[in-house]
Design a protein that fits this description.
The structure holds 2 protein chains of 2 kinds.
Chain A (H helix, E strand, L loop, with lengths): L4 H27 L8 H4 L2 H13 L1 H8 L6 H25 L16 H5 L36 H9 L26 H12 L21 H7 L1
Helix pairs in contact in A: 3-4, 3-8, 5-8
Chain B lengths: L12 H4 L2 H29 L13 H33 L6 H23 L16 H21 L6 H27 L2 H36 L6 H14 L15 H29 L5 H4 L1 H23 L2 H7 L3 H31 L6 H34 L4 H38 L16
The chains are: A mainly alpha, B mainly alpha.
């Protein structure tokens, strides 16, 4: 059996592979089958919409050239913004994958090594159950910071300048520059630039702690009743 | 075990082996290795902010990083292994491959797959799966290619009579595993599952690609070439059995160890960790078996270059597996995950072990394929020493740096501090990489000089070398 063709073919070749597939892939698959997978449209939240509309305000020419203008009428406008925002998320995700961003930026916070302090709340399964995690973008290396709590931490202007030439904001950064996200200067992001910024601003926008700031101290101005209590 | 009798109707070497396809596979492998190493150098230069092509879309380091890993896996290792298999399998089974025309079709189709992968990635069409970045529209073609490879090579194994030698166990299993692994990794996380479950499948894919495609083909070829070159049998048949079945059982169970501390259930993470430590014990038996085979005759590494490549690879294999037994524990993971430690580990496996073995096999095969002795012994030596020492420096440099990065991050030092102190290590990595590339250039030069030299009529010398 151990040296025969059929033994090797069926036991090692197929049997052991199947055993590993069942235990390492099928078990988590079945365990999480009840968490519904969100579509891109379902991922849009007010935090993200704010950032997306902010892009329209900051870069009106680029924005209108890419997405056109809202057709007017409040309810209809809302649907229009959501639709364009979903488009931007899909394109941004494709760029994030295609440019290999995920090879230098992870998207999960571990419950160890003080990562909660630096990046924010530890990652949970439900956060990954959506269309933009096909395949999942956990990442395996952090040349640059983790990005799964990045949304809202920095302004769109910051991101535009940083994508155009990272060194101008982060002196020793080994991150490559992405001038093809722009039409010549950081204040003119093109369709790609707008999409990748939307995608980055989406990351973590679903969190209650949004936006997460490292070593953030709540406002030093205390309410009168707090002052009385401590004194 | 009874040997297959060699009778008058046993086919000759010329009838069995299509030497031309072996040569084509090996040369194509070297072209992709050159591409991959240049890509690696580009990314390494970006890390030290000296990228000569900064701001040019087609030279984006993010895209070339994926070309680097894919060209090594599918361009260099796969082509190198296929070339060596076209030599080894017909000679072991005394049966030619299923169809020699099919072999050429597979050769052409595979180069289309690898070339299209590179072009797709450079145009920004990558798939978000590590080592599976092959654009989704190429995946079905690659899958058919792997099926044809399996049919072409499994036919002679099926036709063979008598007991199967160890190498054939590994090959037979590897053809099935590679086909299944590619299908699982490239289709399931893209079309069937998302999120955490997709992470588990993706982890299993990158793991199985090393463990069930590269590793069994590599070891199978070692079991074939080492006894031939040493002119003595493998030390223990029993240990060969332990090595094969231990690898087959424990290796695939470890996929999740690539994503420890993720939201994947912790009991599954523990399972992956335990079976990883188990496989290191299996690895030790294989290493003992091979060192038992050379015991008392180790002096041949001075003169026999292929054997030197093979055993250097085995030492790196032992080191990398030993490292793995530690790094897989949750204690080590806290520090080293996400750091350059992992990059150092990956280079030690892919270059230190499997590339070294392919280089050894090439050093053995090229003189036979070209009908000429190596033109320059000293270029062979340069190739070996630049590769071996370059890799040692690169791996040690990155593994050490990984520890510093991990501790710095855990200590909540500013992110920029970890980038600043990484800089000198990244510079050393460029230098080590250039040394490894220099080794490759020495090899390419040597092949060219050998090709231009006058052919010899006598059989080429043992180990394919000129006397010192």
């Amino acid at each position: 059996m151990f040296e025969s063709k059929s033994g090797i073919l069926y036991i090692a070749g197929i049997g052991f592979f199947a055993l590993a597939f069942v235990s390492n892939a099928l078990v988590p698959w079945l365990m999480y089958r009840d968490i519904p997978e969100k579509t891109v449209a379902e991922l849009i939240n007010p935090n993200l919409r704010y950032q997306f509309e902010d892009l329209a305000r900051r870069y009106p020419d680029s924005f209108n050239a890419t997405y056109g203008t809202p057709p007017g009428g409040d309810a209809k406008d809302d649907a229009w913004w959501n639709e364009k925002c979903a488009d931007a998320l899909r394109t941004g995700h494709k760029l994030y994958v295609g440019e290999g961003c995920w090879h230098c930026h992870s998207q999960f916070v571990r419950p160890v090594s003080n990562e909660e302090e630096r990046w924010g709340p530890v990652s949970r399964s439900v956060e990954y159950q959506n269309e933009l995690q096909r395949p999942v973008l956990f990442g395996t290396r952090r040349v640059g910071p983790d990005l799964c709590r990045e949304g809202g931490r920095r302004s769109n202007d910051w991101h535009a300048v940083h994508f155009f030439k990272p060194e101008s904001l982060s002196q020793a950064s080994p991150m490559p520059e992405y001038p093809w996200f722009f039409d010549g200067s950081p204040d003119k992001p093109n369709a790609k630039g707008l999409a990748i910024m939307t995608y980055i601003q989406w990351l973590g926008s679903w969190q209650e702690s949004y936006p997460y700031y490292e070593a953030y101290v709540p406002s030093p101005v205390r309410k009168p009743e707090e002052i009385q209590e401590t004194e | 075990m009874t040997a297959t009798a060699i009778t008058s109707d046993t086919k000759s070497h010329e009838e069995l082996v299509d030497e031309k396809i072996v040569k084509f596979y090996l040369i194509t492998a070297l072209i992709f290795l050159t591409t991959s190493m240049l890509a690696g150098i580009l990314v390494a230069l970006q890390m030290i902010r000296h990228n000569p092509f900064a701001g040019i879309e087609l030279f984006s380091p993010g895209r070339w990083r994926m070309v680097h890993t894919n060209a090594v896996a599918y361009g260099f290792l796969a082509n190198g292994f296929l070339g060596c298999l076209h030599w080894a399998i017909p000679r072991l089974t005394l049966q030619p491959v299923a169809n020699k025309k099919l072999s050429w079709f597979i050769f052409a189709a595979w180069q289309v797959v690898v070339g299209a992968t590179a072009i797709g990635i450079l145009l920004g069409e990558a798939q978000g799966l590590e080592w599976g970045e092959t654009p989704v529209w190429i995946d079905p073609l690659a899958q058919v290619g792997l099926l044809l490879v399996a049919i072409n090579f499994m036919t002679p194994i099926a036709r063979m009579k008598g007991p199967m030698y160890v190498s054939l166990w590994y090959f037979l299993a590897a053809f099935v595993w590679t086909f299944l692994t590619y299908a699982m990794g490239n289709f399931i996380p893209e079309y069937f599952v998302s999120g955490t479950s997709a992470g588990a499948v993706g982890g299993l894919f990158i793991h199985d690609l090393v463990g069930l495609f590269v590793t069994p083909l590599g070891w199978g070829l070692m079991y074939y070439f080492v006894p031939i070159l040493l002119k003595r049998p493998i030390w223990s048949h029993g240990l060969s059995l332990v090595g094969f079945w231990g690898l087959a059982f424990f290796y695939p169970l470890q996929g999740i160890h690539h994503f420890l501390y993720t939201p994947i259930p912790l009991f599954l993470q523990y399972g992956a960790i335990v079976s990883t430590i188990a496989v290191e014990l299996v690895v030790t038996t294989v290493i003992i078996n091979f060192f038992g085979s050379i015991w008392g005759n180790a002096g041949v590494v001075r003169t026999n270059l292929p054997i030197r490549w093979f055993y250097t690879g085995m030492i790196y294999y032992f080191l990398t597996c030993l490292q793995c037994a530690f790094q897989v524990t949750l204690t080590f993971q806290k520090v080293i995950h996400f750091t350059d430690w992992v990059v150092g580990h990956a280079h030690m496996v892919m270059f230190g072990v499997f590339s070294m073995w392919i280089m050894g096999m090439m050093t053995y095969l090229f003189p036979r394929l070209l009908g000429r002795n190596w033109a320059s012994r000293s270029l062979c030596e340069w190739h070996y020493w630049l590769s071996t020492l370059g890799l040692f420096v690169m791996a040690a440099d990155l593994i050490l740096l990984g520890l510093f990065q991990g501790w710095s991050w855990a200590a909540l030092e500013p992110w920029d501090a970890s980038v600043d102190f990484s800089f000198p290590f990244w510079v050393l990595r460029v230098i080590a990489g250039l040394a490894m590339f220099g080794g490759l250039l020495a090899f390419l030069t040597n092949i060219w000089l050998t090709f231009r030299a006058a052919p010899v009529t006598a059989p080429v010398k043992s180990g394919g070398l000129l006397p010192t």
